[in-house]
């Protein structure tokens, strides 16, 4: 489609939306610059995504690493422009499971003989002051076991550290958030997911009107409080699940309990919620693990 054709169809799309009967979802096209410099001090952020052979960082391997380096203003959360992109495939040394190929379309033939350049990863990622991933608790353990640069950077998670539900978006899934924000893209390839996430971060939260990136930056250097609701009543499981708690079966030395992570300054409010679950005095019942920004979302956290 030519630019002129796209402009013509955009007029049609806007006309449909103005009727109030249609909501048009647009395909994401490459955006190099979101905002012109405005005098605010700028830092470099890194959006990261991985495709892997499975869900367990202890036994599975990265088959694709995508990164996007971008300029942003720490004070406002405004995203300026993309500085560079990185995307490389890697041979895991074994057959890629069929369900992974079905989702990512990455085949054994595509990765055969490929190795992600460790020096290139170090040079690219070391420029960033903050790494952002959608589900950092998944991506970080995978990348930091191979590339030490990711151990030395604070991380933020756009899935768990933006209160999407409070903004009227009743999902944490990146593809669905994108649809709610008016665009779609070809998901489950690392670079595409990174560019889509940056497009989300450069957008505006529908309820509060803040830049999406701002809540992540507000807590980037604050500690996390990971709450283990040990011995929570069985009948509270649905309430906890709706709140965002997940259940740990007690493996890997972790408690068998519902658990949830909040920012340190949100701990008192979360304990007040848990007072209702336990019938009072939640602070004496739960286990609280504090995690620093450098360990956040890692296997050490």
End-to-end CA span: 48 Å
CATH class of the largest domain: Alpha Beta
> In the CATH hierarchy, what is the architecture of the largest domain at level 2?
2-Layer Sandwich
Total number of strands: 11
Overall pLDDT metric: 94
Number of domain modules: 2
Question: What is the CATH superfamily label of the largest domain?
Answer: Ribonuclease H-like superfamily/Ribonuclease H
Q: What radius of gyration results from the CA coordinates?
A: 21 Å
| CATH overall fold name of the largest domain | Nucleotidyltransferase, domain 5
Low-confidence stretches: none
Name the strands of the widest sheet in spatial order. 4-3-2-5-6
Structural class estimated from helices and strands: alpha/beta
Relative strand content: 15-25%
Largest sheet: 5 strands, mixed
Q: Write down the overall geometry.
A: globular
**Helix count?**
10
Share of helix among residues? 25-40%
Order of helices and strands: HEEEEHHHEHEHEHHEHEEHE
Give a structural overview:
By secondary structure, the protein is of the alpha/beta class. The chain has 2 domains: 24-218, Ribonuclease H-like superfamily/Ribonuclease H (Nucleotidyltransferase, domain 5), CATH 3.30.420.10; 224-291. Helix content is 29%, strand content 22%. The protein has 10 helices and 11 strands. It has a 5-stranded mixed beta sheet, sandwiched between helices. Strands 9-10-8-11 form a 4-stranded antiparallel beta sheet, covered by helices on one side. It has a two-stranded parallel sheet with strand order 1-7. The radius of gyration is 21 Å and the shape is globular. The N and C termini lie far apart (48 Å).
